[in-house]
Amino acid sequence: MLKFKKNGIFSRSASEEATASELQEGGVVAVWGSPGSGKTTMAVKIAKYLADKKRNVVLLLCDMTAPMLPCICPASELECERSLGSVLAAAHVTENLVKNNLITHKRLGYLTILGMLKGENEYTYPPYGEAQARELIDCLREIAPYVVIDCGSYIANDILSAVALMEADSVLRLANADLKSISYLSSQLPLLKDAKWDTDKQYKIAANVKPQQAGEQIGQALGNVAFILPHSEELEAQFLAGILLSDLTMKESRSFRKEIEQVCREVFSC
């Protein structure tokens, strides 16, 4: 049986009542956007911010084509390696099944992670359907007050990411201020015109904005945006090294850290 860390996500007894602040805060946020816009980076940094604030948070990594779990931290930092594929392969997704497949982090006791392992892909496990995807997200709501979902870009063929966008309380929609991102949005946004996609819960975010990109240029490319994530060389180096759960300590990353804090205050009321 899995033994979770002291003060970790499952350390509280079922009889303990949530505080008033916990009842008011939290929710499910889905991070989605154009390829290369920094979806995983933002999702991980949001999850880390919450864990650092001693908020119990689950990070769900949806990508089955290029598993992101090996890209966010070294395997040595994880208590165990279990797979999202094992959860979705079940006929019915239960809370116990999800708990037994969550991965805990050795240093961040308030964070647990669920994703595909290195070398796996969508054909490693039996196919799953919309029912399992919905059951998974429902279970995550029961397990932790904060759920951060890193969605894949191409939702037409990604059931889990598509369901996450529908079921999430808030959606962070990332794009770079460049022609590729604009072309991507023109291609994908018509898929979100149906009534089941609640556009009111979506926050448009300009990602990886470099100093030479003026606000006017961003506005022309992406329209009005709720948040602007500035480029950070330290953050880029962490991504390339696969250590996104590390702290951002350099002065040039200060603006990015402040923006993540503002995003969390807005979408989670924390």
UniProtKB/TrEMBL annotation:
The keyword Cell cycle does not apply. InterPro entries: P-loop_NTPase, ParA/MinD_ATPase. GO terms for cellular component: cytoplasmic side of plasma membrane; cytosol. SUPFAM superfamilies: P-loop containing nucleoside triphosphate hydrolases (SSF52540). Keywords: ATP-binding, Nucleotide-binding. GO terms for biological process: negative regulation of cell division. It comes from the Bacteria. One of its GO terms (molecular function) is ATP binding. This is ParA family protein. It comes from Brotocaccenecus cirricatena.
